[in-house]
Amino acid sequence: MSKTLVQFIIEEQRNIPGASGDFTGLLSDIEIACKHIAHQVNKGALIGVLGSAGSENVQGETQKKLDVITNEIFLECNEWSGHLAAMASEEMDEIYPIPAKYPKGKYLLTFDPLDGSSNIDVNISVGTIFSILRCPEGVANPTEKDFLQPGTKQVCAGYALYGPATMIVLTTGNGVNGFTLDRDIGEFVLTHPKMNIPADTAEFAINMSNRRYWEEPVQRYVEECVKGKDGGREKNFNMRWVASMVAEVHRILTRGGIFMYPFDTKDPAKAGKLRLMYEANPMSFIVEQAGGASSTGRQRIMEVQPTNLHQRVPVILGSKNEVERVVGYHSGK
Length: 333
Ligand code: AHM
Ligand code: MG
Prior knowledge:
- The protein is of the alpha+beta class.
- Helix content is 30%, strand content 24%.
- Strands 4-3-5-6-7-8-9-10 form an eight-stranded mixed sheet, with helices on both faces. A five-stranded mixed sheet has the order 12-11-13-17-15, sandwiched between helices.
- Strand 11, helix 5 and strand 12 form a beta-alpha-beta unit.
- The protein starts with a helix and ends with a helix.
- 2,5-anhydro-1,6-di-O-phosphono-D-mannitol (AHM) is lined by residues 61, 90, 112, 115-118, 207, 243-245, 261, 273.
């Protein structure tokens, strides 16, 4: 019989002295939330959940109905069990302390409940991204500053991909494993053990419509990829852009590639598009654990000291040798 996600985590936790079972319980709640979200995404128009909610999130982005619904699902599935001290979401202005009627736990959870939601109405893959941090020692009522830990402090990071199959891919700092939802038994089962990103690739992903706003190092790198063998590279490159980061990272984990949402001057007030706490850090942890690399172009993403819950960062991640090349261009090589 195939190993289920919960069985996998229980077995992994047995190797950690003093593990209390809290973490296993938390992951099991997250898994249930992802099953609920998969159901909503899967039913789509049949249950009237597509389209705009008519509201904006803290980032000034129009929320889809499913952004709001999936955020509620994540809160509801994770607030009651006593494993968390607080949560923070891309879709909420402030952190969400665990309500007083529930016991509090030792972990903090950050999440983007429905990443790539601009794709939802056109029936293209979307995902959920999450990251687990420890609540600082002695803090009973965490505030925003308790969340501002660099990515290197993450205990676990994962994503759910709602594609042709629904998957959860996660790391606890001991490699990356992928689980596929078997709808016949209602469980995620281990289908992609020890995922590994090849160091070399001939595939890049970037939103080319932003080209005129990029900095010179990214201009140079992409120009070289486009020219391929005619421009000094040893191979020709292919390009993909799904506009769903989860689908993009999953492709890279499966067959390699480089993904970039770099700094651009389109809106100089923003350091990038993607959010450090909900997107960049968890994806960087996963990518590094699979043998890839992740950088802003100037710094390892997981070493960025967060200063704000909703801050944005440039993201360049994927196959190690290509990421290192782009980083090299940023340092003038
Ligand atoms: P979202 O969290 O509002 O969905 O935004 C994040 C998404 C990523 O999944 C994707 O890589 C990027 O935005 C696509 O941006 P663009 O539409 O500029 O190509
Ligand atoms: Mg997002």
